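Blinded run. Sample ID left blank on purpose so nobody reads anything into the name before looking at the predicted structure. Input follows.
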Amino acid sequence: METKDQELTFNIRYDMHEEDWKDLMQVFENMPGWVGVEPTGELYWISKDEDSAHIKAFITFNGLVIEGYLPDYIWAKWILEFIEKSSEALGYEVKSVYHK
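Blinded prediction complete.
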């Protein structure tokens, strides 16, 4: 089981309405492995240690970036759950707009 760097950017804009951010925050908190939010605004799941398995999210002008250091199958399962829950909460299809 190879652990590797993962990254996706989603069509979640930095300038959403405050109510949408509240709804999205509930999704974040209910995702598996929720750890919390740093004062910098970065969100973490599983661990805050970026040298071990973790998921981190932050907002940019391009959209919401989610990075991880996980095996592919765990990453894929977590991301699919995030897409499903966030699409339902926000009322539109959340999808990746850029990935590497």
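Unblinding after everyone has recorded impressions. The mean pLDDT is 95.
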